[in-house]
Amino acid sequence: MDMRAFIPAAFSLVAFSTVSAESLPVYFGTYTGPENSGKGIYRSALDLETGKISAPILAAEARNPSFIEVHPNGKFLYAVSEYGGDGSVSAYIIDTDISRGEAAPRRKGDLKFLNERPSGGAGPCHVSIDHIGKNLLVANYGSGSASVIPIKPDGTLVLGENSILVASEIVQAAPPVVTNASSLEGVKENNKSKAVDTNNRLGDMVTIPAGSFLMGNNGHEGFGGPEEFPQHSVNLPTYQIGKYEVTRGQYRKFIEAGGYQNPSYWSPQGWKWKESDVIDYAGMHGSVTHTVRPNSRDKRNEPEHWAAEQEWTGHGFGHPRFIQTDNHPVVGVTYYEAEAYCKWAGGRLPTEAEWEKAARWDEKKQHANTWPWGDTWDPEKCNNPEDHNPAAGGYKKNQSAPVGSYPDGTSPYGCMDMVGNAYEWVADWHKSYPGSSEPFDHTNAYRCVKGACWDDGPFSVRCAFRGWYLPPSSGGVGPGDSDYIGFRVACLATKMKGR
After folding, report:
1. pLDDT at residue 10, as a whole number
2. Which helix (H) or strand (E) covers residue 253, if one does?
3. Do both 367 and 431 map to the same domain?
4. Residue 112 and residue 118: Cα distance in Å, rounded?
5. DSSP characters over 33-90
6. What is the structure's pLDDT at 398?
7. Pairing assessment for the beta strands 485-486 and 423-429 based on DSSP bridges
8. Does 15 have pLDDT greater than 50?
9. Looking at the structure, do residues 167 and 214 belong to the same domain, yes or no?
């Protein structure tokens, strides 16, 4: 493989006890994704006499392993996964022997995945291990935090609470450079205000406790396509998710804070889209329309259809013009814009599993509700074409409603508007569940959306329903049809400690 075919992001050397004295294995982390040809962690051999390095071979698939570190005993390797929102650290065991007699024989130096642990912050960029190999330290540049994760004797990372030190604590713990007491108090107050500001950006959050839940369709919902099956158990650590969808008022703060001018909030693919002149009206199932922005001479500084007064003519019974308030969910945003907002706010998009657990799981009954409130359809408990709630325009006047307008449709955990009102981006690529009878994989093509919108009936506004759109799409087939995709924020529970 030509080294120019991928972008190395990190490397590490390791010595096996049985390795030749003339060479050492070398591991490379790479950037992955549709715009990079790297697939994960690669290995090569360094000739110690000539200084030449052999062609790299894929040792393990991983997502953006931008920094890697080998355990002091040489048996394990750890890699951060750097992506939008919170990152993670993965543990691998290094094969030191060539296996024989297996269907897929392992090679010396290959990596076997052990487990994965949240990094405790956004944008993990560095890992190191103490000299006795019991603790891993990870630095997160995106959130300005450091996290310590214990390592078990078998190389796996402990999945309990880890110790997290945020930037403001690091500043306050460092030796002061000012001796004036009033000046020092000012520094502390400034740090405090920054922490409060980050929490304010996240908004009201609901804590979802660790544990398993049932995800997908159990076959008794009366609706559902093959992508919803089979129902399966998913175990999640404690996390937090927005009580409400992100509102226009919240998103305006991101715009006013320069969110569209700061590439650090955007993924590489997102920033490339943001700087382009193209609008993608990309609906479900492959329909795509490309057009040039009418205001292409100006940089993107807001969603393409940001105007508060809207006339949504794309579908349904006909939509009179109405004015969205700051309490309406922001809609017509692409995956890239949702992802950038979440990073600015100090969080990330929820995974599909996190979204679905928050929407439907009744922990007391150990039951996955069809709709957030239960298993019986009630059109007055969410925004849909059949409800009469004047907040959404009333019957046959389809439009979004201010968040929290349907308190009777609250999920068992207390999340509002989990179905109806607006589709919501989640972090996952759209692919079939394990054990599906009709497997598919749209990785690097379609992202999942959940919850359906104000224009959908009981089939789509179920918690198990799965939609999919292209990341640069803000909705359907044209300007009047980009009015129904929004999002909410999630984060690790440790992010919100002290609130």
Report:
1. 54
2. helix 248-256
3. yes
4. 19
5. STT----EEEEEEEETTT--BPPPEEEEE-S---EEEE-TTSSEEEEEE--SSEEEEE
6. 72
7. parallel
8. no
9. no
- My answer on whether 112 and 241 are in the same domain is no
DSSP annotation of 394: S
Q: Which two tokens stand for residue 288?
A: 């795509």
Stretch 252-272: mean pLDDT: 95
Do 115 and 237 lie in one domain? The reply is: no
Pick the more confident residue, 100 or 411.
411
Average pLDDT over residues 79-104: 69
Rg (CA), the chain: 24
* For residue 5, pLDDT beyond 80: no
The enclosing H or E element of 196 equals helix 181-202
Distance CA 461, CA 353 (A): 16
Residue type, 58: L
CATH of the domain at 457: 3.90.1580.10
Our count of domains for the chain comes to: 2
List the domain range (segments joined by +) for residue 359. Answer: 201-496
**Residue 381 shares a structural domain with residue 233:** yes
Q: Are residues 145 and 210 in the same domain?
A: no
Q: What burial letters (b/e) apply to 84-122, b meaning 16+ CB within 10 Å?
A: bbbbbbbbbbbbbeeeeeeeeeeeebbbeebebbbbbbb
- Is there a single domain that holds both residue 444 and residue 306? yes
Note whether 404 and 281 are same-domain residues. yes
Q: Determine which of 140-149, 189-198, 291-300, 354-363 has the lowest per-residue pLDDT on average.
A: 189-198
Sign, Cα dihedral of 386, 387, 391, 396:
positive
Residue 18: give its domain's CATH number.
2.130.10.10
332, two tokens: 């017509």
Torsion angle of the four alpha carbons 333, 448, 243, 141, in this order, in degrees rounded to the nearest 10:
-80
**Is residue 36, in this structure, part of any structural domain at all?**
yes
**With contact defined as beta carbons under 8 Å apart, do 474 and 304 qualify?**
yes
Whether the pLDDT of residue 219 is over 70: the answer is yes
